[in-house]
Amino acid sequence: MSEQEWTFSYEGTLHDVFPSLLDAQRGWLSAIDSLDALDRKTHELIRLVCMVLARNAPGIRRHARLAAEVGASWEEVCAALVLTEPGFGILAAVEALPQARKGFEAGAAVAAGDAEAEADAEDDR
What we know:
Elements: H1 11-17, H2 19-33, H3 40-54, H4 57-69, H5 74-82, H6 85-88, H7 90-112, H8 115-123
């Protein structure tokens, strides 16, 4: 598998050192992604909130993008960010907004079938 095929930046390194661990992790994440107790939009909004709490900018972009791809509105994404404020303060939510916007715009472009806008949004990463 080439570096361009990695979903996450750490996967190449993990593959080089512990390829079977990477395979197991991918299987575990796939099983989580296939849970059907929640609809996919809710799933992505929850994962977005988790990334905000972890202050993980790439994760915020990724899950805002995926949320948009499965039909979340910008208002729903913002509401998810704001819901973190009572327990974790305003700073994490405010810092997440620009990253969430970048991801959301890329996801909205995918949902709209606009390859050019998607490429422009991805270039801003």
